[in-house]
Amino acid sequence: MSSCTTCNKSASEVPLKRCAKCQITEYCSRDCQKQDWKTHKKTCGKPDQPGAGGRQFASSTPSSQSSSHPPRDANPFIQLNQGSWLHGRPEKEVYGLLIDTFRLRADDQYKFEGDAEGDGVYGGASDSIKPFRRFLKKVESKPGLLPAWWNPEKTKACIQLGSSASGWSSLRSAVGKSDIIEHYGDSFLPMQMRMFGESMYGNTPGATSGAGGMMQQLMMAASGGGMMANHLDLSGDSDS
């Protein structure tokens, strides 16, 4: 009979939920899951783990919509510093970037800290629409981060995109750093998403402030040196 990995309570005693990432290890509560995280994270979702791959990911097939980017002369790190990273983009692209910034932060929070919102996919829910609504409210509370055309109707449209049952932007699916790089074809985009999230929350899961990395990028841009190597990525995770 199945039992909680941490406290060994059986399924007949308490309801059990599987880890949202590997869909294998079972726990009776968030407290037990967090208590076991330091051990579980060493094997969670590894390719050689029996049954690994149960986590639902969005399709990473690139699309013409997802591959659009700001003009090449617009340095995204300068835009982040100015709070204009989402400005000047098509509406659907802004919606997609907001969804993926939220999903990457949720993945980082789970991967590096073993924490998850109970009403999101990492907490066992069927989708992450409720926590995404809270994320959008956080973005909307910061003056200037969203384009001037943003209004309540755009909020609804963004949530509607994430509410789809399938497709890349579905909030029923989780994505990580490597998925985003593959989908957009941009190895620097996860860093930008993490910095955008940090501008709202003041931190990046599993890492200290990214202000140092931001300043180095800005200095390189000012000196005409272009982009720096991806080792500056805030998480320090080189392969995920």
From TrEMBL:
PROSITE patterns: ZF_MYND_1, ZF_MYND_2. GO terms for cellular component: nucleus. Keywords: Metal-binding, Zinc, Zinc-finger. One of its GO terms (molecular function) is zinc ion binding. Coiled coil: none annotated. The keyword Zinc-finger applies. Residues 4-44 form the MYND-type domain. SUPFAM superfamilies: HIT/MYND zinc finger-like. Residues 59-69 have a biased composition (Low complexity). Residues 32-78 are annotated as: Disordered. This is MYND-type domain-containing protein. It comes from Triangularia setosa.
